[in-house]
Amino acid sequence: MPAGGVWIAYDLPGSYEELPPNLLDELKRDRRWCQGNLMNFRLFLVRGMHPVHRAVFLTGVMSYLSAPLWFMFLALSTALQVVHALTEPQYFLQPRQLFPVWPQWRPELAIALFASTMVLLFLPKLLSIILVWCKGPKEYGGFIRVTLSLLLEVLFSVLLAPVRMLFHTVFVVSAFLGWEVVWNSPQRDDDSTPWGEAFMRHGSQLLLGLVWAVGMAWLDLRFLFWLAPIVVSLILSPFVSAISSRATVGLRTKRWKLFLIPEEYSPPQVLKDTDAYLTMNRQRSLDDGFMHAVFNPSFNALATAMATARHRQGHILEIARERHVEQALNETPDKLNRDRRLVLLSDPVTMSRLHYRVWAAPEKYSSWVNAYQQLALNPLALKTK
């Protein structure tokens, strides 16, 4: 690609793409990305690949492989502590051994590992806040608020990191086992997580955190001190997942000018135009759009033009299309669930056949005609231009 003159848009200062509205939706997206990054890593060894591109592939795969590595490190550390706590130390390992084998303790290695981890985690945050202070923190809420936002973001990251570690570990294992991943469009609108779903998805993590904490407290309370950020995060995972998904929490922090960015302090014109368009689009939303796409000629033409499938031909494909049309028309419209409607809407040929048949034989498909006639009149559906 570089030889062909393809460049990354390096001049773009940022993106308006937002995160999914809650932790569970973000993890669903991470599972798709995990599988994609692992699949693309085979390009890492392709001959002629630029070193920068190799680094991109390596960074992408390690963003998920680091989770099982971290989990194995914690598991082995815990297992080692269990062995030390439950067994007597052996200083003489062989018969008639003259000198004892003393256990070795290398604190400099532990300190180096801890220090390097802290630098990797917190140095980018420290440099970014210094840059904001130097450029002027007014657009970020002011000096005090932007500093408080950084501290709260660090706390929130500490609470979420162990949760992501366990989920990403499962994602990596499932990818290697070949488990199927559904590639649906991610949720973008505000969508809070119910308490029941939060405890169902994070219940195993809560249980693991409790067992881990109780076991380490019984064996060695000093080791629990080092594990506290992990086990506390796992125990609180259902509560953090549910509370952080509430839109009211985000609106409240916005009123307090926390986590503020310049685009929120002084919105650019493109964001103002986008908000105005979204408001107008919601006001002009069409109820029962699927039924109008089947019966109304204008909406049917629009639906077929926007269908994601192509006008492909083939004997097997024609049999599948005919089966979908017949199965749909032989049932009442209310029996079609969302997935079946999406299958019909995705194929322009299928939508055209549905439209033709309900108009060509209204007596035969009276259940569809009656259902359409019972719909409330919508001014948008009356416009044919």
From TrEMBL:
InterPro entries: Glycosyltr_2/OpgH_subfam. It is a multi-pass membrane protein. It is an enzyme of class 2 (transferase). Pathway: Glycan metabolism. Keywords: Cell membrane, Glycosyltransferase, Membrane, Transferase, Transmembrane, Transmembrane helix. GO terms for cellular component: plasma membrane. The chain crosses the membrane at residues 55-76, 109-133, 140-159, 225-249. It is found in: Cell inner membrane. GO terms for molecular function: hexosyltransferase activity. Its EC number is 2.4.1.-. Its main location: membrane. This is Glucans biosynthesis glucosyltransferase H.
